Amino acid sequence: MLIYKHTERSGFTYEFRSNLYWFKLDIDAYNKRMSELRENSNVSKSDAELRDEALASSGNIQNLANCYPIPLYFQANDITGESWYYFRISSQHRETIKNTFTGTQLASASEFKKRLLSIAPGCLFTGNGHQLDEFIRYKLDRIRHVKTIDYIGYSQQYQTWIFNKMAVHNGKVYKMNPDDYYEIGKTDIKSLSQSPNLEINPDLKQLNLSFVEKIYSCFAEKGIIALAYWLGSFFAEQIRREQQSYPFLEIVGDAGAGKSTLIEFLWKLAGRTGHEGIDPSKGTAAGVARSLLQVSNLPVVLMEGDRDSQSHAKKFDYDELKPLFNGRSIRTRGMATAGNETYEPPFKGAIIIAQNATVNASEAIIQRIVHLHFRAAQLSKKPIADELAKTDVKYVSGFIVKATTQEKELLKIIFEKTKCYEQQLSQHPEIKNVRIVLNHAQLMALVDALDFLVALPRQCKEAVHQMIVSLAIERQKRINQDHPVVEQFFEVYEYLKNSLHFTKIINHSKDEKLIAIHMNQFVELATEARQQLPPLTDLKNILPSSTRYKFVEKSRVVFSSTERTQAPYSMRCWIFHAPKN
Q1: Do 157 and 148 form a contact (C-beta atoms < 8 A)?
Q2: ∠ CA(233), CA(238), CA(244), 5° rounding?
Q3: What is the pLDDT of residue 55?
Q4: Which domain of life is it from (predicted)?
C-alpha cells in the first residue's frame, strides 16, 4: 500500500524476503468497494481511511519469482559488439549468484525464464512479458555503465593493471568491490576474462624477498637475468610504446637443469601456481592465438614447441612469432557483421620459449631472442632449489604489486639506462646487429630496475651485466654462422660428394656455381652411408637460412639422374650457391 500511495501506479513489482512480487490494483473492485464503504461507513472515518480500506481489499498480489534478480550495471565488449546486463540474484534459501543477461534475454519473459533457470539453480520466473517490462523498466533507468577489457593485465587505454581480485593505477592498489568491478576515480572498469587466475597478495608486509638470493645461488647470473626479464614483462606495453620492441627470452638446457623449477617459481611472483607454460605444437592455431591474447604485461611461456620429433609429427613454427616482437597481431579474424570488418588484436605480453633444444628458426627470429642455456651443474644447491619450489605464493606474489606500484620510478630507470647501454654495446667491436644491441641493452637496464626494486646481492649486478654482454656477443656469432642443422646437412653433402666409391649423382646442377639437391634422394643416400641427418621437415624449415651455401630456391626443375649411367629426367631440386672456397 505504501508503494502504491507513493507511485500511484496500478501495477508494479516489489521485493519481499528475496522473492519478486507483482501488485495489481483492480480499479473496478476499488471503485465498487469505495461506494460500499461510503454508504455503510461510520461518519467518523475520513476519505483517506476509506481509501486505505478499499485499496486493501481490491489489490491483487502475485509471486513472480522465488528469487530476487536485480540488475547492477551494463557492460559491453567494444571490439565484438557484445553486451550484457550484470545481475545479482538473491534467494532466501540459496547462495547469492551474480551473472549476466543479454538484451534479448531481458526482452522476452520466456528467454528471461530460461536464462534464470540456467544460472540460478531452482530459481523460477513465472511472470508475463508486461510484468517483466515493468520490473526492468525502472531498474534500468540510469543504470551504471562499467568499462571492460577482455584480458588479464595492463590496459593501455586506462593505464591500469586489472587482475582477478585487485587493480593497480598510478601506484595505488584498488580492491574489487562487492559487485565485481573496480571504482578507479571516475572510471568503473572490470575484466571479462577469468583466465589466467592470479592469486595476488596485495599485502607487501608479507612479501619475502629472500627468493632473490636463492635464485642467484641456484642459477647464478642467468637466473637473475631471467628474473629481470620477468620484471620487464610487467611493463612490456610501456617499453614497446617507448622503444618499439621487447625481446623474446629463450630458456634451454639439459633435462634436470632446473628450467621448470625456475619458471614455475617465476610464475608465483605473478600469483600463478601449478603452471609452467603451453605447448603450441599440441594446440590449434586459434587456441594458441587465444592463449597469447589472454594477458597484457604478463609473460606467455611456450614449451617444447620445437622438440625433436619424427618428420610426420606436428611442430610449431617459431617464425610465426615475428610480429609479436613489436606487439603486432599474430592472427586476423573476420567480424560477425555484414561488412568487411576484421579484428587484429595486438599482442600485449612477453614471450618466453622454454625447451631442451635450441630454437630452430630463421635469422630474423634468432635476432629477436635473448638466449639462456642452463646446465645441470648449475643446479648444485638442490635444497635451496627445493625451497623455491615449495614457496607459498602468498609470500612472493606481492612482487608484482611492488613492481607495478612503482611504475614511474622503474620505467624512468629502464628508459634512461637502455639508451646508455645501447650506446655502450653498439661500440663493442664484436656486436654489429642493431636489434641484438637493443635487446641486450634493454635487459641490462632491467637488471638496474630489478636492483632498484629488490636490492640485488653484492657483486651480483656487475657480474650479470658482464654476462649479458657475453650473451650479446654469442648471439652475434650465432647469426654470423649457419645453424647447426645447416652445417650438419652440408657436412653430409661434402662427405657424400667426395666419397670415391660413390657412383650416385649428388649435385644435379650443370652450373659449377650452383648446387642442386634432390632432397628425398639425398636423405636416402645419407641413410645408406650411415650418416645422421635431422628429420626432413626440420631440414626444409631451416635450410633457407643457409649463408655459406647461400639458399636460392627450393623447387626448381632440373634435368639429371640419380645414377651416372642413367639418362637424365626432370626432377625438383633445392638450389644453393656453391661457396667460392
Answers
A1: no
A2: 95
A3: 67
A4: Bacteria
Q: Give the number of residues written for the chain.
A: 581
Phi, psi of 456 (to 5 degrees): -65, 155
Residue 453 in grid coordinates: 626494486
Is the per-residue pLDDT at 310 higher than 50? no
Look at residue 80 and give its three-state secondary structure. coil
Whole-angstrom distance, CA of residue 326 vs CA of residue 368: 10
DSSP letters spanning 394-446? GGTTHHHHHHHTTHHHHHHHHHHHHHHHHHHHHT-TT---HHHHHHHHHHHHH
Cell of 130: 508486461
What's the pTM value of the predicted model, to 2 decimals? 0.84
Selection from 442, 425, 487 nearest residue 233 by Cα: 442
Residue 118 φ/ψ region, left for φ over 0, alpha for ψ in the -120 to 50 degree band, beta for the rest: alpha
Alpha-carbon gap, residue 2 to 537, rounded angstroms: 80
Q: Is residue 1 over pLDDT 60?
A: no
Of the pLDDT bands very low, low, confident and very high (cuts 50, 70, 90), residue 505 is: confident
Alpha carbon distance 66, 122 (integer Å): 8
The residue behind cell 638470493 is: 213
If phi > 0 it is left, if psi is from -120 to 50 it is alpha, else beta; for residue 376 that is alpha
The three-class DSSP label of residue 577 is: strand
In this structure, what C-alpha cell is assigned to residue 279?
A: 605447448
Q: Which three cell numbers stand for residue 272?
A: 600463478
Q: Order of strands, edge to edge, in the sheet holding 83-90? A: 97-101, 83-90, 68-76, 144-149, 187-191, 182-184
Confidence of residue 9 (pLDDT cuts 50, 70, 90): low
The strand order across the sheet containing 348-355 reads: 172-175, 166-169, 160-162, 152-155, 295-303, 348-355, 248-253, 369-374
Backbone angles phi, psi at 481, to 5 degrees: -115, 165
* Grid coordinates belonging to 108: 522476452
Instruction: Provide φ and ψ at 75, rounded to 5°.
Output: -140, 150
CA atoms within 13 A on the CB side of 496: 25
Cα separation values, 238 from 84, 235, 326, 444, Å = 31, 5, 12, 17
Domains and CATH numbers, the chain: 1-68+104-142 (no CATH), 146-191 (no CATH), 204-480 (3.40.50.300), 484-577 (no CATH)
Highest mean pLDDT of the ranges 213-217, 252-256, 407-411, 535-539: 407-411
Residue 47 vs residue 24, higher pLDDT: 24
Higher pLDDT, 51 or 298: 298
